[in-house]
Amino acid sequence: MDVSGKVAIVTGAGAGIGAALARALVGAGASVVLADLGEAVAGIAAELAERAVSVVGDVTDSEVIRGLVARAEAEFGPVDLYFANAGIFGARGLDGGDEQWSAAMEVNVMAHVRAAQILIPGWVERGSGYFVATASAAGLLTQIGSAPYAVTKHAAVGFAEWLNITYGDKGIRVSCICPMGVDTDLLRAGNEDFTEAAANEEAIRAVVSAGEVLTPEQVASDVLAGVAHERFLILPHAQVLEMYRHKSADYDRWLSGMRRYQATLHQ
Predict the structure, then answer these.
(1) Parallel, antiparallel or unpaired: strands 129-134 and 172-177
(2) pLDDT, mean of residues 64-75
(3) Per the UniProt record, which EC number(s) apply here (predicted)?
(4) Per-residue model confidence (pLDDT) at position 204
């Protein structure tokens, strides 16, 4: 897909990958509605001038998503692309309560589901539309230090796969972004996102030591290239594919290797 002249919605657009995606989309000729919980998103939209507007809201709420779609249609026209990019890390895992697990599921998975429920029927009628889910390499591999993140990112990949299979022959394109470390606020998340500081440190060490930490701009560039070629898996870190192949080739050996890797992080 050529994004020039298209209308896009980007969630989690107040910083990080979302802000970089919005800038890259506008730079490529698209018009964008930026959404985020924080007021910072308005500054990003103002920077992008007349081809961008912002909405502050919780994109786990179906009514907020409908409001994004309505705003896009009123300002620019029918929505062509939806970037489900908002995400949170979550708690350590077994130490986390139901509220923390539910929050990770709501943001990392159900926000995608609700957006698809609202957009896909209209896209099927039009015969075109593009859903881009930001998951993580954790969705293909795992995340040491945060069970909710690992589990919900697996679910995000699974939902994107299902969308691709179910609607791919009806004109709907689906991509799933699975990077490793990206220099964002999420990578530098404060301890308030975790039940223990040690869990935060372990998760961050696992990400940083696994490979290069990319800038959001590098990831956004790779995402637009992936969208242009309509690739399902968009892997800004090329080594993720090789890791995934090792995992699928010998699951037990991979699990054993991950336990050894985890032990080195503890040291």
Answers:
(1) parallel
(2) 98
(3) 1.-.-.-
(4) 67
Q: How far is CA 218 from CA 4, 180, 182, 184, 233, in A?
A: 19, 12, 9, 12, 16
Read off the pTM.
Answer: 0.91
Residue 66 pLDDT exceeds 50: yes
Provide the residue type at 70 as one letter. A
CA 113, 75, 15 angle in degrees (round to 5)? 55
Find the largest Cα–Cα distance for the chain: 56
**DSSP-derived 3-state class of residue 67:** helix
Domain 7-238 has CATH 3.40.50.720: yes
The torsion angles phi and psi of 93, rounded to 5 degrees, stand at 145, -105
**How confident is the model over 7-49, as pLDDT tens digits?**
999 999 999 999 999 999 999 999 999 999 999 999 999 999 9
CA angle (4, 64, 126) in 5-degree steps = 45
By three-state DSSP, how is residue 266 classified? helix
In whole angstroms, what is the distance from residue 79 CA to residue 3 CA?
12
CA gap 73, 56 in Å, rounded: 17
* Active-site entry in 82, 149, 251, 261: 149
Whether 149 is a known active-site residue: answer yes
Query: What pLDDT, on a 0 to 100 scale, did the predictor assign at position 94?
Result: 85
> Which pLDDT belongs to residue 14?
96
